[in-house]
């Protein structure tokens, strides 16, 4: 066993010699985390992803039965039914009626039936319910019992009716047409009668039969799903079961780019809970970066709202059930854009993991179909492109394949009977869309580790392997003048931080140019614009920590000038205000010292040493002069002009205010 700290909250975890740390509680099984109630949301926005392992038709009929039961229950206890619906609704009857209409629409599309025929199928289902189930003594209080009940209903009620439902439906229609009260109806004569009695038609013509006048069924993905035999067509079955994810698979590269953007632009912190997504995006300076990030956030919200019901069925993602109860909008909490292992910040990771596994499962199944080994041909998520994805548009590409491999049989007086060659469809699907595709190497945890890792450790590792030196004043000035764009500064910080993480593990020649290391050794050309390259062209590996220090401080200065808070994660304990006397004393000190060096070092303290989760961090009651001396001594900086003029009474609690004053003083 090993000792460590939780990356999210900083609590000590692990143990030694098989003895856990204090506070460890042994888990005796995972309880049912499913939240009971109706969480589909409003009908117009709900996902039609099948529940659990049911077919689309089975899932639709189960939902319809649920909504009928809730509507019946609302008659006797409207408030009780309202309490079951998450999020809350005002008009329970209207809400349930809209869902019933949606259920009818989806069922008709799935079985290729009109509204009347769909209603007949539902009546047949309800009739069989009465014949096969008593409805008494059923305990549905746990997830397992509900799953068992659904399986039983599908096996004993729904599947027998749907098996050869065309024949069953035909018999039901004949019984309706023969009903004494309906047989003389003009409408029934038109629908079911002999057209020769109504129209002047030639004798011995196929048009004599009503089957001639029946419209050809429209092929849809939903109706095709009813024809597939799972054991005979595993790839097609997988495709149909994941069709809702496949529709959104094209957005995976944009979501991966958003994950990277959030690291560079929006630092995580508890303060995000006071922001909405819209207000958080407004904190980013206007320009290409904000426009691109806003577009990617829109994609994230759209994909989440489409697939949140899929996530409910995927328990391996381990999301809090309350997160997928409602859609994400721009008025939702800004925490959805804050990367974390738990809570709203984990939703983006869950969507990326779900889509990546969709792609990988299709690639694996296609390789099995072609009797290929599951090779180690992978691409990292950050380098993923659309051309590498297993993209196949269900309507525009799958259905033409189905029609191309469809056989038709016509008998006189009967409707045309069609059948599809599923094996041939599978082969074409695999060859055209999945063959040669790599698997996606998904490691979204690395973004979290990068987010929450104590960067002091990275800098210490670099200093231990590569002797460091300060940047010349001319270089500082040159870099600031070149990096005027906030986007360029963010990209430069991102690139240098990655370089530091590698250098901390591998070391390097102090005289090698930092730009050469990033572009030639780490192949980061795509992350480094011509402006960034020009700004870093003179910096060496012996100055990489000083480069990072300047870039992060310059980024905060730009945010401050735009009226934004550069210390979003800083505790309120370090945000006290200076008195007028203290401001005068600090200004006297700034006139004596090297303001550039002081602002850089104080910014590093605020960024790295004031976090409560950091071991040996600085406390707000420490006086700033002694703290700065200790900090500089650890970095082997022995001379710092004017530091003695700082009064002992000024503490780190006012460090953020002092840093802002130093930045203004430099102007």
TrEMBL record:
GO terms for molecular function: ATP hydrolysis activity; ubiquitin-protein transferase activity; zinc ion binding. The keyword Zinc applies. GO terms for biological process: immune system process; negative regulation of non-canonical Wnt signaling pathway; sprouting angiogenesis; ubiquitin-dependent protein catabolic process. Keywords: Cytoplasm, Immunity, Metal-binding, Zinc, Zinc-finger. Coiled coil: none annotated. Transmembrane segments: none annotated. PROSITE patterns: ZF_RZ. It comes from the Eukaryota. Residues 1-36 form the RZ-type domain. One of its GO terms (cellular component) is membrane. Its main location: cytoplasm. It is found in: Cytoplasm. This is E3 ubiquitin-protein ligase rnf213-beta. It comes from Cyprinus carpio (Common carp). The gene is LOC122147043.
